[in-house]
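Encoded backbone
================
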Amino acid sequence: MTINRRQWIQSALGASALAMDGLSWAQSAGGLKISHQFPSGSLTEGDFRDRLCRKFAAEVDKRSGGALKSAVYRFRR
């Protein structure tokens, strides 16, 4: 039995998909890094853009049930 080009490509893609599936399970869920350049504050005080980022991070933590952690960083020049 000879393998034609289409069968060879399908088998190669299938093997690479299986390999990538194993890699995705091996990676740990690191976290979401949110960065901005505006003045820092807290959830209730400070620049509204910083508060928006912090509220977004808190909502991500809440909706994911703690599976995805997020951190807000301020970019400094």
Notes: The mean pLDDT is 78. Helices lie at 5-26, 48-63.
